[in-house]
Design a protein that fits this description.
The protein is mainly alpha-helical. It has 13 helices and no strands.
């Protein structure tokens, strides 16, 4: 179990870079970074397939299509959403919105089986709502009216990313927990191919066809971050998460996702070279406590019935 937890935390640390990478590579666009990142993810996956042990052969066609779809829609769609969320809403809001995923998964599960009385979930849900609301209200109160539409756009983008992330998490975990689950390496390879297909679709929208001049320093930073996000933030992170999904119960794996919020906030404030405000710190703490309580309630319920 320790290996699973370490792999899960490593994944969150790498995924958390998504909340700062689009800002680091500016003036290159989010689409530029998306295409480079996931194109490299696909290239690494294909190169590894030269070795027969890395080839996802013998899998059901539906499983292959699911893996490719998850890589294309889940990864490319999610990263694009988060990129624009960070661009328009800033450092604090997007990680907190995405950080509600574990609690949201628990709520979805409860809507299906009604295993927990909703009054039991009242306190953690209130904490989550108050935490996110506190940060949002604080940010709106300190920005001019002309900037508020952009923040709203960023929040919408973060919510779209959350929806995609929830769908990805549920579908991928279901596959990895099934009896005929593919190996973590094969499942990573399929998603890498899917991510590459999604990157190709976005290729016409990059800066390649525009008369934009970038300095050598800007290009170096872009190539460096595209490499980091493509190899470490995509291929390695996906492999670590597949290992964690196989070794850990879904409830525990879901709790680890909260660490992505912590890493995302840390990277964002480090990039801006500032400490969080009272509202940002307080809202984040309330939200993390609420998510942790919600998952703990479901975990205790499952242990009792085990």
């Amino acid at each position: 179990m320790l290996i699973g937890i370490l792999c899960g935390l490593a994944t969150c640390a790498l995924w958390g870079l998504s909340f700062v990478a689009p800002r680091v590579v500016a003036p290159y666009t989010a689409i530029d970074l998306t295409v480079a990142r996931y194109g490299l993810f696909a290239v690494v996956s294909l190169i590894l397939m030269i070795n027969p042990r890395f080839r996802p052969v013998g899998l059901r066609r539906s499983l292959v299509l699911t893996g490719i779809a998850l890589g294309s829609i889940g990864y490319v769609g999610y990263f694009m959403s988060i990129s624009y969320a960070v661009r328009y809403a800033g450092t604090a809001i997007p990680p907190l919105v995405i950080g509600t995923m574990p609690g949201l998964l628990a709520i979805i599960a409860n809507l299906k089986d009604r295993s927990i009385d909703w009054r039991t979930l009242a306190i953690p849900l209130i904490l989550i709502g108050v935490g996110i609301g506190w940060v949002n209200v604080s940010i709106f109160a300190t920005t001019s009216a002309s900037d508020q539409p952009e923040i709203l756009l960023g929040i919408v983008a973060a919510l779209i990313g959350l929806a995609l992330w929830v769908a990805y998490g549920m579908m991928s975990a279901a596959v990895m927990q099934s009896q005929d689950a593919p190996s973590a390496m094969h499942w990573t390879a399929l998603q890498g191919i899917g991510a590459g297909i999604g990157a190709l679709v976005l290729l016409p929208f990059t800066s390649l066809g525009e008369t934009v001049s970038f300095t050598s320093s800007q290009t170096f930073h872009f190539v460096l971050w595209a490499t980091i996000m493509g190899i470490a933030g995509s291929w390695l992170a996906t492999l670590c998460w597949m290992i964690a999904s196989r070794l850990l119960p879904l409830a525990l794996a879901a709790q680890l996702i909260v660490a992505e919020t912590v890493f995302g906030l840390f990277y964002g404030f480090l990039f801006e070279q500032r400490m969080p405000t009272v509202a940002e710190a307080g809202g984040a703490i309330l939200q993390l406590i609420g998510v942790g309580m919600a998952i703990a309630i479901f975990t205790a319920k499952r242990v009792k019935h085990a």
